[in-house]
């Protein structure tokens, strides 16, 4: 498959969704990750896109906003179901962490009737929604704002989140597999998630079924750090059975 066809696919995908992952190109054209990254680098040099860890985003002034908007609407009903199920584990007076990601945001609306919560987050949309509820204390960690993810990452964020102990950490991921564990597009994003899990009593991974048995750019933790994996009911039954066989506490929303 020649590079012009791959490049057209990359640009069409960016135009439709706002972002693209290296593994999408690899799987679509059966090429190496090096070849896919070379295609992305060429288009970046020509000004068509911006490179990210694990992929690329569309290069225009509004691309960051549109990229996030597209992601939050993708698999919307699945994410709402996952968020509602996750919120059922939150008890009054809990101290919890809510990670960034479009699935995690969906649980916020189901917390409004909880009492005495302390919520720590690095998600700008989560913080914005949660501040509408007067019955909880919201702590937004500091650090570098990543516009396309609507989140806060970096060394400052890692240091700050390390200072907290939480009863329950609700985290997201860009990929999860039995072999490789949890993975993310960006190591800075992953480092914040991993740090909070080290001090959490329980860790809940919220993940829509499109990410199951997929590996992203940066492998950051084994599945063993997760106490509960909450996923939608579109997961393949055979795959679900494999996770249960590996003693993964799989909760299907």
List the helices and strands and how they pair.
Blueprint lengths: L2 H15 L1 E3 H8 L3 H13 L3 E4 L2 E4 L4 H11 L2 H12 L7 E4 L3 H4 L11 E5 L2 H7 L5 E5 L3 E3 L4 E3 L1 H7 L4 E6 L3 E3 L3 E4 L2 H11 L2 E7 L11 E4 L6 E4 L5 H9 L4 E3 L1
Parallel strand pairs: 4-5, 4-9, 5-6, 9-12, 12-14, 14-15
Antiparallel strand pairs: 1-3, 2-3, 7-8, 10-11, 11-13
Helix pairs in contact: 1-3, 2-3, 8-9
Task: List key phrases describing it.
Rossmann fold, seven-stranded parallel beta sheet, 15 strands, 253 residues, Arc Repressor Mutant, subunit A, alpha/beta, three-stranded antiparallel beta sheet, 10 helices
Overall description:
- This protein has 253 residues and is α/β, with parallel strands linked by helices.
- The protein folds into two domains: 3-63, Winged helix-like DNA-binding domain superfamily/Winged helix DNA-binding domain (Arc Repressor Mutant, subunit A), CATH 1.10.10; 75-252, Rossmann fold, CATH 3.40.50.
- The protein is built from ten helices and 15 strands.
- The strands form four sheets. The protein has a seven-stranded parallel β-sheet with strand order 6-5-4-9-12-14-15, sandwiched between helices. Strands 1-3-2 form a three-stranded antiparallel β-sheet, with helices on both faces. It has a three-stranded antiparallel β-sheet with strand order 10-11-13, covered by helices on one side.
- Helix 2 crosses helix 3 and helix 8 packs parallel to helix 9.
- Mean pLDDT is 89; it is low at 61-66.
């Amino acid at each position: 498959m020649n590079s012009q066809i791959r490049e057209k696919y990359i640009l069409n995908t960016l135009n439709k969704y706002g972002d693209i992952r290296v593994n999408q190109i690899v799987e679509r054209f059966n090429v190496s990750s090096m070849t896919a990254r070379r295609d992305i680098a060429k288009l970046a040099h020509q000004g068509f896109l911006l490179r990210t860890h694990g992929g690329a985003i569309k290069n225009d002034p509004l691309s960051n906003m549109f990229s996030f908007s597209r992601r939050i609407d993708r698999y919307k009903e699945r994410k709402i179901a996952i968020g509602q199920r996750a919120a059922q584990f939150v008890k009054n007076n809990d101290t919890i962490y809510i990670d960034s990601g479009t699935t995690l945001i969906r649980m916020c609306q189901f917390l409004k009737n909880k009492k005495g919560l302390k919520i720590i987050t690095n998600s700008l949309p989560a913080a914005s929604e949660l501040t509408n509820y007067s019955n909880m204390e919201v702590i937004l960690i500091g650090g570098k704002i990543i516009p396309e993810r609507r989140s806060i990452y970096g060394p400052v964020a890692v240091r700050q989140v390390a200072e907290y102990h939480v009863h329950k950490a609700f985290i997201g991921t860009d990929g999860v597999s039995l072999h490789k564990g949890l993975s993310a597009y960006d190591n800075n994003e992953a480092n914040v998630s991993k740090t909070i899990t080290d001090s959490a009593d329980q860790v809940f991974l919220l993940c829509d079924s499109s990410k199951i048995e997929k590996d992203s750019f940066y492998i950051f933790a084994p599945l063993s750090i997760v106490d509960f994996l909450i996923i939608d009911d579109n997961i393949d039954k055979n795959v679900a059975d494999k996770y249960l066989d590996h003693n993964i506490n799989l909760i299907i929303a």
